[in-house]
Amino acid sequence: MNLKFRLTVLSFLQFFVWGAWLITIATYYFSNDIGHIENAGAKFGAIFSTLAISSLFMPAITGIIADKWINVEKLYGILHILYGLSLFYITQVHDADTLYYVVFLAMIFYMPTISLSNSLSYTLLHREGYDVVKVFPPIRVWGTVGFIVAMWITNLTGSKANTNQFLIAGVIAVLLGIYSFTLPKCPPQKSISKDATLVEQLGLNAFKLFKDYRTALFFIFSMFLGAALQLTNMYGDTFLDDFKNNPLYGPDSFVVKYSTIIMSISQISETLFILTIPFFLKKFGIKNVMLISMLAWVLRFGLFAYGDPAGGLWMIFLSCVVYGMAFDFFNISGSLFVETTTSPSIRSSAQGLFMMMTNGVGAFLGSRVSGYVIDDYFTLVNGQKDWHGIWLSFAGYALVVAILFAIMFKYKHNPDEMAKAVVSH
Fold first, then answer.
1. In this predicted model, what pLDDT tens digit does every residue of 1-44 receive, in sequence order?
2. Domains in the chain, ordered, with CATH?
């Protein structure tokens, strides 16, 4: 069977098994007794922060294992099977504390598979003589398609507020794990030097980049913006679902019934905005593109604050469209900043540090702090949430970060140099 097709299937399923529950776990949590407890927001923030915590250490650990001891496709398969089994167990959990540990376990198994799937694809494509830069992006796009399809299935099967979402993801994850064992073998590369220290093996030597003022500022702002990245993944679907409690709209409202499908517009937008990045980077430069991203986050949250299923429906849709710009522009321009300003000897580690600051430290702080803030300031006496206030506070946060970034971060745009970087990237 054609290798590109097999890797496309891999990419599709890789993100399908995440998309089936990531956007709707808050709807499940807050719609059931498990979320009707004291400090429910803080506990959910802790649950969602497990994605970030596992991202801090598991990709590096599994990278070393795959490099030294076990075939990539086998390690990948084992992790997905264990991930699927963990999701099955979630259906037996009835309290927030236990849910925290089971989701954490699932994330320990799942998060490293994202980088392993890339490594697996790169290795096989290189070995078969393909131009990876040209061939891989279309394959990866199908991962986003898989995420979207999973969201639609969860919504249309009536699974967004019950444990069926975890069963859907779990079954496909186990099948993906089995499927990966049929892929061509990718034995350990033995690329890590025997003399390398543990710090070097884990990529922690990139932390010396904090000695440079501008680079340190970049990583700090990456952390601040990383705190915003998961907020709509955490709360977007349950925000739309909560309109069922408003007598003006009710449970039969289009927005309530198809909340997850509406949220999938964000992922569709993400795939489209990727195509515009070369133009924006060449025209405006890295700093301005990152600043556009930050202002897009202000719009993302602000439009949610004033949107509703009636006259404000266009704001909800526009917010989902803006998400693509907010997400893509920062992640890709930030990655290019690292690519063009760091030494080749630590470039891979620097890219890992960028991901650690955004999807690790930043996402952890955003998950945890948002939970406490919602509990203390935006949860009403009857247990309902003041979504208008929640989204405005998030918008205010993103605006402050954008203003500080515009003032403090210095970067001179070189159109010719950026054009070369975009092409090579």
1. 699 999 999 999 999 999 999 999 999 999 988 888 888 889 99
2. 1-188 (1.20.1250.20), 202-425 (1.20.1250.20)
